[in-house]
Amino acid sequence: MNSAPLRFLSTIRILVFLPALWLVIGLGDRAAAQQGRFGVGFDQNMSRFIPPPRMLNQQLKDAQEAINDRRYSDAVVILGDLLERNVDPTDDSSIAGQDFFLEIKDSDQQRLDQSFLRHCRDLIGGLPSDAFATYELRYGALAKQSLEQATRDRDWKRLREVRRKYFHTAAGYQASLILAQRELYLGHPLASSLLLDDVVSSRHAVDQLGQGLLAMHAIACRLGGRSVPRELASTRVEVTIGDSADAETITDWRGWIDEHYQLPDMDSISRSADYPLLGGSASRNETDAGQLPLSTPRWMLETTATPLEEQRLRKKADELAASGRLVPPSWTPIRVGNQLLMRTTERLRGVDYRTGKRVWQYPWFQTDVSAETEQYDAMLGTGASGPPDRLSRRVWNDLPYGQITSDGKRVFLLDDLSPFQMLQINPLMGVRNTSTADGGRNTLVALELETEGKTLWRLGQNPTIESELNQAFFLGAPIAVDGALYAMAEIAGDILLVSLDPATGKLVWKQQLVAIEGAGIQFDAIRRISGATPSYHEGVLICPTGAGATVAVDLADRTLRWANSYQRRAMGSIMFNSRSGQSSDQLLQRWHNSAATASGMSVLVTPPATDNLYCFELVDGKKRFSKSRQAAFYLAGVRDDQFLMVSARDVVSHDLESGRLNWRTDQRLVSAGQQIVGRGVFGDDSYIVPTSGNELVEISLVDGTLVDRVTAQFPLGNLIAIDGEIISQGPTRLVVALGKKTLGPRVERILQDDPDNLDALVQKALLLSERGDRREALEVLQKARTIDPDSDDVLMLSISSMLGELRENPTPPPGLEEELDALIDTPNQRLEFLALRIESALRKRSVADATKRLLDFSRVMADLSPVGNEDDAILRDPARDCALDSWVCARAAEVMRIATEANEVNVVQEELQNYLESTRLESTKRLSAMTGQLGPLGIDDLVVTLGKRRIAEGELLLAERLLLGASLPSQLLDQQQLDFTADRAITLAEVYNEGSLYQDATAVSEALLKSDPAAENKDATIELQTRAEESLAATESSIDVASPVSLTWKSQSLPGAGRSTFLQAVVDPTLYGGQSFQGWKVVNRGGSVMFQNPDGNVMQLPMDEFRAARVQDRKAKISGGLMILERPGRISAVDLFALQGSRRSDASLWARDFGADGASNTQRKIETTVFGDSNFSYPTNAGAANQISEFRVGPVLGDRVLVLQAGDLLAVDTTNSETLWRNSSAPTLGHILVDQDRVAVVSYMKGIVSSVSQFDLFDGRAIESAEWEHGKVWATSGKHVLAYQVDAKSSAATVRLVDPFAGKVVLEIDAMIKQPLTQVAGRGCGRILQDRYMVLFDTNGRLVIWDLLKATELCRHDTGEMPELQSMYAMWMDGQILVLPANAVVRQKGDMLTQHGETHRTVHQIIAVSTRSGEIIWNRDFQDDAWGITVDQPYGSPVVLLARSKTIYEVNKSTPKMDVAMLRLTDGETIHEQLERVVSPQSTGLTTYLTVQPELSRVQATIDGEQLVYAFGETSAPIRQPAE
Prior knowledge:
By secondary structure, the protein is an alpha+beta fold. It has seven domains: about 5-25 and about 50-260, no CATH class; about 300-740, YVTN repeat-like/Quinoprotein amine dehydrogenase (Methylamine Dehydrogenase, Chain H, 7 Propeller); about 740-825, Serine Threonine Protein Phosphatase 5, Tetratricopeptide repeat, CATH 1.25.40; about 825-1035, no CATH class; about 1035-1065 and about 1430-1524, no CATH class; about 1160-1265, Thrombin, subunit H (Beta Barrel); about 1270-1425, Thrombin, subunit H (Beta Barrel), CATH 2.40.10. About 25% of the residues lie in helices and about 30% in strands. Keywords: TPR repeat. InterPro entries: PQQ_rpt_dom, Quinoprotein_ADH-like_sf, TPR-like_helical_dom_sf, TPR_rpt, WD40/YVTN_repeat-like_dom_sf. This is Outer membrane protein assembly factor BamB.
């Protein structure tokens, strides 16, 4: 590029120096996390643009009339005074000096680019020459005086004031030219061209400044990426280059500029040595200094106030990550000089960037965290569940709290941020909100960096200075531009742009942007949590208001440049009839950040209140395109004419010019079960994203392919890159890590000059450790320790390197363990050291050493306040998380396995006994932890002690879960397998007796007597059994169905719509053990969830979820005294002890969500088997998860329930929903089984996957994987899988019951299928009853029933051919399985209707089979006279009801009639029959709802609008037909 000055031959000679124009503006990748959708969607804008006040409109009208009347002097005075913006004392001070848009329409989607003050300027510019002279005469002298003063003082603010007030004077033109020159010098040609746009459009300015002005404008336009003005094509301009005496005439402007000037990179990338705000600079397009760091941090700090907060945040992060909704945290650190400034959960901290030492904090005094929490919870109305939600709101939702900015001398932040308040709108009672919190104001704080956080000023709720802004709510931290602060604030329903003096906080000027027509900021959840802060690019301040509009302001002129409004998607803060306790997690479904990103001519805006990204032209605000957010969290930034959108599992590139898709990252970019958890950083030609598995993944900007990945030994969050280092701030930690690429050369240079430089030695040791040269690293560290023996950094790194050597070297150098043992002085290091020694002992199969070290590990844990990250250093597996208790438990199981094989169990017991003797008086919490850690070693005495404590405390469910441990209750309660001591079993029986689960108490007693009839505790067992049986007999009553029965039949006189049977879906829970709740059902009735007992009576279940869940989507599992309810993406736990007793309101234990990419993308899928049975699964959103995946809940053990969520296999604590372990390398779909200490996931999808993957039950460690060779999975029970394979002719199938752990087939049978392709083949049907029994029936009359839990064939019978077999259903009722086959029915006019809906089915035969013996008890044949039967009648009913109907049509008349028959369950005899009962014309249904009332000796049935009451023991009376 030619750097010689450019000399224009014109009336004024101007020197324009254009060195290489590399822009230094940075622009933030900001982004978004997804807006909550639980509110009412208002299809309207929440803001409106304000037209000029009537007074200003009148002045403008007077000026225009004066111009039309050629009264130019009057027009000059009016317009000149308007542009001077002098405040008249009689004017409204709130609008004085402000600009307004013109031509505002009544539309929520409009673009405005005409403003009041610009129009006034244009009117002056259009005046004739004589009027122009009048203007110069009136204002020129004052303008010239100000120009000379500004030039003499080099006062750029005053120079802008000359342009702003007196643009159309000679001084105003010269001021504009000088300002444009300055922007060109600073490398901002686009800003220069915008300043010159108004100048070159004025013939007076061109006449005064000459045609060289046009050349300068053309150069600025071309270098700024704009088109060269067309007018120049017909304009002859001569220029002289440098000292040349010859003038050059330009005709081809583009060619001439390209020949003489190098086009700069208009990328707005920040290349500053500081990082003063989100995005790196005011354009917010980030830095390009990103590089993969070392896996070991340089230093690390907590972001929480207490260990409890850290524990809560880690738990919340795990929950969000498991559901794909872990969005980037709300906070981003900044660096100014040698200070790093970071938000924590309670404070702002100033940290020495070199050492990581805390230097100062704001507020400096110690706050009462508990008091603040209580106040916060009172505002929210959250009660006891408030603190965790308070933290999660602040860490993931509160952008105004998390973002801080600096101008290099000061740091600015928002304080006194009250939580948003939820408006409750009741259609009858209107708006309701009981909160009195002052949420309409907050405080903007300025702290001085030089004096370590001294408060300079505060504005707002708790001010230190008087200001009209003390009534404001500041929407976000301000940005600093050219020595001034700019922020957006809401006051009395208006959103303003305010300019402040950064040193004093004094209001310099303000500009109204929009007026709010909806709820105030304290009631608008999306606006409150997203905030709003300006961006600055090329002279334009871009202000996304967060209220459905973005406004651009010309900063030099203080005029409105353009505005765009767009429709808000929803008002997430307003709810109708809001009693559902919606969590703030739903607000995560939005763009994470609202700040605009600008680069070149483009402005990208991601309004959190919409689901779109908008691209606007910087110059005039024209919309170039919009893109749907889909699952994206945030906009990363702009590079190479493309912009990146980042979602949970992928990065997508779009063309900046058209918005078209360029590329999308591969589905394997992020490891299975992981997601992107923070904002990334740009490298030279790459982008680096952080993941939940602590992986940093680098992708190419060319095509999105994987460049490299690194597993960090520290938690990740939002990243910033500066000075060759990566800074990461996640929910609980801030970390500084050295970059690999630049560290080596830099360290070598420093050590070459100063071999004893301590920092360089430490960094070299880090680099050597990263490369695996740990011994050399230890030598370097030994030297560093000699130089500074007291250096904490050297000590910590030495310990870390020694631990690394011990971890990776099976034969460490002699003396290393002893030296390391002496150096370690923190519990976390001690745990890692002991863990390595435990693993070493296990490798050597040393039972004694492994046991001792395991117990030492448990002791250290007892003294530790766990926060949830202790496993990071021990596991070092990005695909797996594991609570330390679970890790210890797995090692204990391994010790016991080796001890058993080596016949050294006595060694374990001896060490264990000594340890337990010293702990018997420990707290309940400590004993509970020990039982979770050491259970496999055989600590039944300790378990019994703690179990009895729990019983005494009334915590029966906790006692039961403890005593069952990691076993299936069915092993003891149903299969009579006793795997622990008699004392432990007796204590469990006591729990069941106390909790009124008498059948289970009896089952435990029977198992005890069966296992050892001559045991010492036989008498105690018999006593328990007797007590349980007596209690059970006292509560049971029955109906004598052999006695006479009478029927009372009533038709309800309700309107037709009201007579229809209420919508409900009945679910037979899967039983994982337990007799007490056998036959209980879950009834989903409308918005309620009921628990139905075996008699058909219901009680409402306490639910904490939104009532709108679809009734057919729920399933249930019962495990002893615990029930797990499941629906798509969510599980919840119900305490059945509490439900049975007097504490029903306490029965709801917990609920946990498992979603996908922040949305409820998990839906129920129904798949019909070849036998006509239906299987249900919950596939997750394949597009979001980049794979075929599903959500599935597995077995419910005593202490854990297993869940598979899109490649994540989790063990969830049944008592509190905490994650015991997680393995992200699991299959993305499959069925889960458990056997002893292993978990198996059987995955099958034809042509895609067919495998059996096994994992450790205690810590989730992957063990082995094998092929699955048995076809489609039909059901699972216990440790067995029921599967089938269809033959090559698709006419029959082989059914197998398989033990996947042993890899063997237990049962096998060839069966007919329902729809064979071969016509001559018979048909067969099959059903699964509560994952316990399989029933097969075919046209040959073959009936086969398998007990899947016991892996036995219950029966095989030949019942006679049914060649027309069409379907078969089955019911499990009180010790019998009723098989209900039906032939194909071709209904003719006048025939009986036998089928209705999904549950009332045709039946041609009923076969009753005993579940005890497998014998057929009775058989009824209806092949000549078909009936209908509701197939979910109550388990405990002593009778079965059949129903059918028909309608008799006559002239002008139809008569509906119904038949109802009652069969005795014990022998199948018809004990009552009512035929051709005339019913109401509205009674069209047949589905039968049965309720048994033994205390009244009656059975009540509801069939649509018909009420039938059967009374036993009474003489049958004739039934009167209703009058026709």
